[in-house]
Amino acid sequence: MGFLIDSNLWIAIERGRLGAADVHAITGPAPIYLSPVNLAEIRFGIERMTDAKQKHRAMAMLRRMRRKPLIRIGAETAEVFGMLAAGLAKSGRGHEFRVQDLWLAAQAVERKFTLLTANARDFKDLPGLKFAAVNPPGA
Q1: Could you give the CA distance from residue 103 to residue 109 in angstroms, rounded to a whole number?
Q2: In 10 A of CB 83, how many CB atoms?
Q3: Helices marked H in the chain
Q4: What is the C-alpha to C-alpha distance for residues 113 and 31, in angstroms, rounded to an integer?
Q5: In the chain, where are the structural domains located?
């Protein structure tokens, strides 16, 4: 058992809207893993920042995130991704705008992890995915 954390919650933690204790209250002693998707989304945001002070704080957050064990995206993850995306397409729901969410979900499904997110609606229609909604104050 383990947990993946959606990038929106990593950002909420960094901005002080959610505390590490809040996350621990949900995860308990279970391990929390980092996805390459988290790194990509956070780095994308950093590269778009223009305020040097904000960028410096965000880079520090990225360094702290990288202390978590990183799970890889492999062939099995890709197959789960394909099944999830096809399921969305068959149901008439678009998957194109949700590519990053689908990769996170595929990793969680493959490993039987729980995904923590502030956007439950992004994940509620994905079969086999265990997720927990966390709503940070001020989010």
Answers
A1: 10
A2: 15
A3: 7-14, 20-27, 36-48, 52-65, 75-90, 99-111
A4: 10
A5: 3-133
> Going residue by residue through the chain (139 aa), what tens digit of pLDDT does each one get?
899 999 989 888 888 888 888 888 999 999 999 999 999 999 999 999 999 999 999 999 899 999 999 999 999 999 999 999 998 888 887 766 678 999 999 999 999 999 999 988 888 889 999 999 988 776 5
61 by Cβ neighbours in 10 Å (0-12 / 13-18 / 19+) ranks as: middle
Assigned token pair, 100: 């990053």
For strands 3-5 and 114-117, give the pairing: parallel
At which residue do the structure tokens 């969410």 appear? 101
Distance CA 124, CA 11 (A): 21
Quote the longest CA-to-CA distance of the chain.
Answer: 45
Could you say which architecture CATH assigns to the domain 3-133? 3-Layer(aba) Sandwich (3.40)
pTM (two decimals): 0.89
Dihedral-angle region of residue 92 (phi above 0 means left; psi in -120 to 50 means alpha; beta otherwise): left
Distance CA 137, CA 109 (A): 28
